[in-house]
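Researcher: Let's do a round of design. I'm pasting the structure tokens now; please hold your answer until I've finished.
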């Protein structure tokens, strides 16, 4: 059968044209014999009720209509056939009005033809017929999005997602939120409705609360707490239970929980400014905190060499740094007095117990300003040249006769020994890539360049011997 409007060949059973959407009215076919029979019956009925040339019988002058039995049966059959046809047509229209598939086909055809008013009417009718299927609602949302009515599209998509999770409707709602730059609403719907795959796809728009590396509770030693974000962004936190914000602590490194009670609240802010919910944990740390290390000398400017000495609290080691950073157990450990270098320097000290408890940090800033007439470079030359003069090496560069190795020298520190200010220079022997200390230490007077050999004694003391 062909469409009466555009001539397109219709598929079997189709009630509308797939090209133009025209409704097709189907009248049941009849067998030729039955059709001819009905035609003959109707003709006979017409003949029976038409005037005839045959004289009518007259009884007592009253007219009498004579209908034979065959004519009566055929007439009844014709009337019955007409009734069947009427019932079929009425049934068709009732089927059409109550068919979900029919409404959807009509709606889809109108949507393709951009007849959005008609399409919406059919979609609404289809949804009223089957409210367990949200496809009609979703396509109504598509209509509004096509028309540029994003708020209405958002409303419809939201109904679909709230009614029953549909990934296609969910993505459409997400895209509408992105176009409208409603990032807070987008984050909320992703957290509430999206599955794991969809959340991963739009992770940059999400703001999940930061994860805590440590379960809340009571601990007997110092703990390191990490706050872990789900994606790129910043974490702000407080330790007293107050509400965190951009004016609070910015998380950059693990938080050391020492002795005491903590109420840690944290919030994550993603790269587009969306904030997560605030999440909080409570901790109680019952640990012995060591005393602060005692450092001497105190901050200040000095014109003679100084040695830094540190007294560590009982049961703790002292760690220090010289790059203005906070010491950790991975930093240098204090064992012997430290010579303050020339110029400005800064030392950070901290005591850490075996349980991991930390003291307060002690910071000392020094400026060693010594009137030197001999530079460090000149002192190194004095040592090298003297080794060559006495024949210990065969060149000022430190080469050794009969060996591929050579002696090398490096400045180590500035010391004040026997009322003299001296550059201390350590000796090494290097052969290939192997470098070893010989244990020899030479000292050069910073004023006159006199060369000594420094002999180590007890308690980090030295004596001088001419060299």
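Researcher: That's everything. Go ahead.
Model: Designed sequence:
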């Amino acid at each position: 059968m062909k469409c009466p409007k555009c001539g397109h060949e219709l598929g079997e059973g189709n009630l509308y044209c797939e090209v133009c959407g025209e409704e097709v009215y189907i009248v049941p076919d009849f067998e030729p014999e039955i059709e001819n029979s009905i035609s003959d019956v109707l003709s006979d009925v017409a003949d029976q009720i038409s005037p005839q040339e045959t004289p009518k019988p007259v009884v007592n002058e009253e007219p009498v209509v004579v209908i034979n039995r065959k004519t009566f049966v055929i007439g009844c059959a014709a009337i019955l056939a007409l009734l069947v046809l009427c019932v079929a047509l009425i049934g068709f229209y009732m089927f059409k009005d109550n068919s979900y598939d029919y409404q959807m086909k009509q709606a889809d055809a109108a949507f393709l033809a951009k007849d959005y008013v008609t399409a919406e009417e059919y979609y609404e009718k289809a949804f009223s017929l089957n409210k367990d299927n949200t496809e009609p609602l979703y396509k109504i949302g598509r209509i509004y999005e096509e028309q540029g009515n994003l708020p209405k599209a958002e409303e419809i998509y939201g109904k679909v997602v709230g009614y029953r999770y549909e990934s296609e409707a969910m993505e459409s709602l997400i895209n509408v939120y992105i176009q409208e730059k409603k990032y807070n609403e987008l984050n909320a719907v992703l957290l509430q409705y999206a599955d794991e795959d969809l959340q991963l796809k739009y992770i940059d728009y999400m703001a999940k609360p930061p994860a805590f590396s440590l379960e809340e509770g009571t601990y007997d030693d110092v703990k390191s707490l990490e706050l872990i974000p789900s994606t790129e962004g910043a974490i702000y936190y407080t330790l007293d239970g107050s509400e965190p914000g951009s004016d609070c602590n910015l998380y950059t490194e693990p938080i050391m929980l020492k002795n005491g009670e903590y109420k840690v609240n944290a919030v994550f802010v993603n790269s587009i400014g969306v904030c997560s919910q605030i999440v909080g944990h409570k901790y109680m740390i019952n640990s012995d905190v060591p005393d602060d290390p005692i450092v001497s000398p105190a901050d200040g400017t000095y014109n003679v060499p100084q040695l830094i000495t540190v007294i560590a609290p009982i049961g703790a080691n002292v760690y220090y740094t010289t790059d203005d950073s906070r010491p950790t157990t991975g930093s240098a450990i204090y064992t012997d007095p430290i010579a303050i270098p020339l110029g400005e320097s800064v030392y950070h000290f901290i005591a850490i117990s075996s349980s991991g408890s930390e003291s307060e940090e002690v910071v000392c800033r020094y400026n060693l300003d010594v009137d030197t007439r001999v530079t460090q470079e000149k002192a190194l030359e004095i040592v090298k040249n003297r080794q060559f003069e006495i024949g210990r090496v065969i060149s000022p560069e430190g080469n050794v006769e009969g060996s591929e190795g050579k002696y090398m020298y490096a400045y180590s520190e500035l010391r004040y020994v026997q009322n003299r200010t001296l550059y201390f220079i350590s000796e090494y022997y290097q052969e290939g890539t192997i470098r070893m200390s010989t244990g020899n230490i030479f000292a050069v007077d910073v004023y006159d360049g006199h060369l000594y050999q420094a002999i180590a004694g007890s308690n980090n003391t030295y004596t001088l011997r001419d060299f």
